[in-house]
Amino acid sequence: MKYAYFPGCSAESTARDLYLSTMAVARALGIEFTEPEAWSCCGTTMAHQVDHDLSLSLAAVNLLKVKDMGLDMVVSCASCYSRMKIANHEISTNPKKREIVSAALGRDYDGAVKVRHFVEILIEDIGLDAFKKALTHSLGGLKVASYYGCLMVRPPEVAGFDDPENPVYMDRLINAMGGVGLDWPHKVECCGGSLTLTRSDLVVKLSESIIAMAKDSGAECMAVACPMCQINLDMRQDDIFKAAGRRYDMPIIYISQLMGSCLGISEDALGLNKLIVSPKEAMNHVRSSVRS
Amino acid sequence: MPIKIKREAAGQGIIDQVKALSGIDVNACLQCKKCTNGCPVSGFTSSSPSEIIKKLQLGAGEELLDSEIIWVCSSCATCFSRCPMEINMAEVMDALRARGAAKPQGNMPLMNKLLLGTIKTFGRTYDLGAMVLYKAGTASYAKDLDKLPMILKKGKIALLPPHGADKKMVKRIFNNLEKTRKKST
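The joint structure predicted for all components is written out below.
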C-alpha cells in the first residue's frame, strides 16, 4: 500500500521517537511511505490562534503537494492531522476561504486530498487480521490506558476519527497485540497542549488528573499518538510530584512504539530510549509469540 | 452568579466583529453550559465559554478582551464538540484573540509570535530557537531549566534549525496574506 507520509516538524525534534517508530512499523508491514518534497509546517496551534487564513494556507501548501502525488496523505502527528483536516473542510465548504488560500498559494486547491491518521490506516486499510499475522511478539497482558487527547477526535464532524467521546482504535490494536486496552474515562480530556511553556501550572494540573485516572484504572503504561500529549505527560511528572506530592512513574509510550516492539523491532530503532519515564518495566511484558 | 457587562453606547458591542472574523453567530446559544462543564481550563480562570457568549449576546464591548480565559484557552474544542447548537466556540476564542491582539494577557501571544517567526524564516518550526527567545523575552530562564540536561541527553529536541522546507513558498504565503490584508483595510 502506497501513501504520501507527512512527518511534521516534531518528527525532526521533540517527537523523533514517534517518527522513527512509525517508519519502522510501516516498513515491517510493507506500507510504502513517500514524503512530499520540501514539505513545510502545517501551522499547528499558533497559526490558527493568530490568523486563520495563514493557518489554512500553511496546511494547504502541503496538501497541494500531496495532490500532485496522487496519493492519500498519512499523518502520525495529531496536530498536523487536525490542521490538515480543518484546512480541507474549510476550503471545500467555504468558497471565500478557497479563494483567499488559492491567492496566497498562487494556485487553486479544492480541499479534496484524503487525510488519514496512521492508526486509522492500520485499522481500516491493513486490518487487524493482517496486522496480527505480522506480529512476532505479544504485549503479554500489559494493561494500557489509550489516551487520544483532543486533536485526533475533535471537532468530530471535521476529524471523523472513530468515536469522539470513546475512541477505541488504539485499544483494538493493543488487544490485538495481546495487551489489555483499558476502559477508562479520560481518553479525550485535554492535557493543556501548547500551554506547556506559557501556563505550565495548568499543564501540570491537567496532566496530573489524566495520569492519576490512568493509574487508578490499573494502567501500567499509557499509549499516545500526539507529540504534545506525549511530552506534557512524560516530562511533567517531576513537576506533578513537586506540586501534588504523588509520584506516578507512568510510562507514556507512542502506540507506534508498542506496535514496533510486537513486530520484533529493537528498542533503539523505535526510539524507546528517548522516553523520559523509563518504559523498561512495561516493556518487560513483551514476549516472543512465535511458536518454536 | 449574575452576569454583568459595562453599559456601552448602542452598537458598541463586539458581537458583530466576532461574527465577521469567525463567521459564527453566537445568538443561537441556549446557555445549556455543556461547553463550560467540559472546558478543561474554565475551572482555573475567572470566566467560562458560556459566560463569554452570554456577554457577547448582551452587547459587551472591548471589556471582554480582558477576560483571562481568552488567553488560556488551549483550543481543545471540547466546547464545540458538545454544543447542541453547533456553535464553534473554539473559533470564537480565536476571533477574540485576534481582536484583542493589541493588549494581550499572559505570554501565549509572545510564544505564538516567536514560533510563527521560525516558520517564516525556516519553513518549519524551530522549537529550541523559539524557546530561547521566549525565555529571554519573559526573563524566565530558571523555569524548566531542570529538564534541559535530560532533554539534551535523550536528544528530545533538535539543536540545529530545520532545513529542507520550501522556504520561498512559505515566505510568499506570509507576504501574500499580508498584502491582501493591507488592501482590505
